[in-house]
């Protein structure tokens, strides 16, 4: 199976830096792996965009009739702050700040991640493995890399030997980096005296006595390197060579470059045939970042509770806004763009509602087969959702004109148009009735805030039994209250 009867699918393969016709390794089965979250903090809007891009890929492949095994990992092993070989363990740092056990942090932020994915109607993967669930396999891959001569043990740690690997294989091929340039740009880091080259990276790191997340290994107590888990879990569930690996553009180097090197060094085969990378999200032309003060959480975006937001926006408005930009392009967030998306989505949904009421004529003066072909051509052209959405608004024009008696559609064409629009809007783009989603969140927020008010009144009259009872009953329902100097906030636990 190559593409479908609607035409072949082309994807931009980051490895070749060009659009290539997608031909699965074992048709009609497709293996898709996407780097999932490191669960030590709340999901931010940039994460939502990245996972949405691959949600569309998953949906489109499934729509074309492929049997997709979609694997998205959970990074629940504590890694170092700068993702190389120094700093503080991310999960342990968060556990210390919140006074919780590391695995409590893992569970809390995994739950939060899943809640955000549901909110934006991002489909669950076929398999969602965790790094801690695959430590044996990670140790096994390290042993194979050592056996093949591409790694070395030093002081309880194990390092990947990049120069040795580069003698035979093209390290830097994915990101376009050259070994000499990489060496020139390296800086001294912790453990540098243990490394044979500044380019070498840890695939197993010896744990310091105070390090909380550590496991036994042939080299002593420690923890796996960040890059290793994806090499292990992708090839375990999809085979030593599989179809598509996705992730944000920021992961191209060093993470994905190291993944390739590890898999080739361990098993002698390039792990991925098509590398697909999504681009970043900016705010008013500036990169979204906490340091810039422009990093929204999904909750802030829905409530409008942020200094840069003029109002709150529904999850489906955000989803529709993101789909109006190609996944490989930078997407700039602004209130004006969000409000335009809000109006566009409302117009689209109103047209969908008009479809059942259209009156059929003996003949059609609209080219519905041509419209359908253009929608499929847009999506098969590297998932070009902006062009496909433009075609959907041509469908909106036809629907409105037919309703007003300015255009004619035959009964078969009305049926074909109805099927096309509903498939593209709900199945492929994954849009939902926005008012239902917005009202659900608004109602939940209102109810919880009313309980917070009642709890505050109870505390004010020193009725701590009632205050504690309200907190505990909400916690039992998965609503966690957090008391701060500024007041009480809530989140789903």
Describe the protein's architecture and organization.
With 493 residues, this protein is an alpha/beta fold. It is 45% helix and 14% strand. The chain contains 16 helices and 15 strands. The protein has helices at 45-63, 90-98, 102-119, 135-147, 162-166, 179-184, 226-238, 252-267, 298-303, 315-323, 335-354, 368-380, 385-403, 411-428, 434-460, 464-476, and strands at residues 10-13, 18-21, 29-34, 67-72, 151-154, 157-160, 201-206, 222-224, 242-248, 272-278, 281-283, 286-287, 331-333, 479-484, 487-492. The chain has a four-stranded parallel sheet with strand order 4-3-9-10, with helices on both faces. A four-stranded antiparallel sheet has the order 5-6-7-8. Strand 1 and strand 2 form a beta hairpin. It is globular, with a radius of gyration of 25 Å. Residues 81-85 have low confidence and may be disordered.
Topology of this structure?
Elements: E1 10-13, E2 18-21, E3 29-34, H1 45-63, E4 67-72, H2 90-98, H3 102-119, H4 135-147, E5 151-154, E6 157-160, H5 162-166, H6 179-184, E7 201-206, E8 222-224, H7 226-238, E9 242-248, H8 252-267, E10 272-278, E11 281-283, E12 286-287, H9 298-303, H10 315-323, E13 331-333, H11 335-354, H12 368-380, H13 385-403, H14 411-428, H15 434-460, H16 464-476, E14 479-484, E15 487-492
Parallel strand pairs: 3-4, 3-9, 9-10, 11-13
Antiparallel strand pairs: 1-2, 5-6, 6-7, 7-8, 11-12, 14-15
């Amino acid at each position: 199976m190559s593409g479908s009867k609607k035409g072949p699918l082309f994807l931009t393969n980051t490895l070749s830096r060009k659009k290539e016709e997608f031909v699965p390794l074992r048709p009609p089965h497709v293996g898709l792996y996407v780097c999932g979250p490191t669960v030590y903090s709340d999901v931010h809007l940039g994460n939502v965009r990245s996972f949405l891009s691959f949600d569309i890929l998953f949906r489109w492949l499934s729509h074309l009739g492929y049997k997709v095994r979609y694997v998205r990992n959970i990074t629940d092993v504590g890694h170092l702050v700068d993702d190389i070989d120094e700093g503080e363990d991310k999960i342990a740092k968060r556990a210390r700040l919140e006074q919780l056990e590391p695995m409590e942090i893992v569970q809390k932020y995994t739950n939060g991640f899943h809640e955000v994915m549901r909110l934006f109607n991002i489909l669950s993967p076929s398999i969602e493995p965790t790094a801690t669930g695959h430590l044996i396999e990670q140790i096994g891959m390290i042993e194979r890399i050592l056996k093949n001569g591409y790694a070395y043990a030093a002081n309880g740690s194990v390092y990947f030997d990049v120069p040795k690997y580069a003698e035979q294989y093209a390290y830097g091929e994915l990101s376009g980096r050259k070994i000499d340039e990489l060496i020139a740009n390296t800086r001294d880091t912790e453990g540098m005296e243990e490394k044979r080259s500044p380019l070498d990276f840890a695939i197993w790191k010896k744990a310091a006595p105070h390090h909380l997340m550590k496991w036994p290994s042939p080299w002593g107590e420690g923890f796996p390197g960040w890059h290793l888990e994806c090499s292990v879990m992708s090839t375990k569930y999809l085979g030593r060579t599989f179809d598509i690996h996705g992730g944000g553009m920021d992961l191209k180097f060093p993470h994905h470059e190291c993944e390739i090197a590890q898999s080739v060094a361990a098993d002698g085969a390039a792990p991925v045939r098509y590398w697909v990378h999504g681009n970043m999200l900016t705010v008013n032309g500036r990169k979204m970042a906490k340091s810039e003060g422009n990093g929204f959480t999904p909750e802030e975006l829905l409530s409008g509770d942020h200094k840069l937001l003029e109002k709150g926006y529904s999850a489906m408005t955000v989803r529709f806004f993101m789909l109006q930009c190609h996944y490989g392009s930078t997407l700039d967030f602004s209130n004006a763009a969000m409000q335009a998306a809000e109006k566009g989505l409302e117009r689209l949904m109103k047209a969908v509602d008009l479809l059942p009421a259209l009156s059929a004529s003996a003949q059609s003066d609209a080219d519905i087969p041509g419209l359908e072909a253009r929608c499929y051509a847009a999506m098969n052209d590297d998932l070009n959702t902006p062009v496909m959405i433009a075609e959907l608004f041509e469908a909106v024009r036809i629907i409105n004109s037919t309703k007003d008696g300015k255009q004619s559609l035959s009964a078969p064409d009305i049926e074909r148009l109805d099927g096309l629009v509903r498939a593209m809007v709900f199945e492929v783009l994954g849009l939902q009735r926005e008012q239902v989603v917005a009202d659900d969140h608004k109602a939940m927020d209102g109810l919880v805030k009313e309980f917070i008010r009642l709890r505050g009144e109870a505390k004010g009259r020193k009725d701590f039994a009632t205050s504690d009872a309200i907190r505990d009953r909400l916690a039992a329902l998965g609503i966690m209250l957090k008391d701060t100097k500024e007041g009480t906030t809530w989140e789903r636990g």
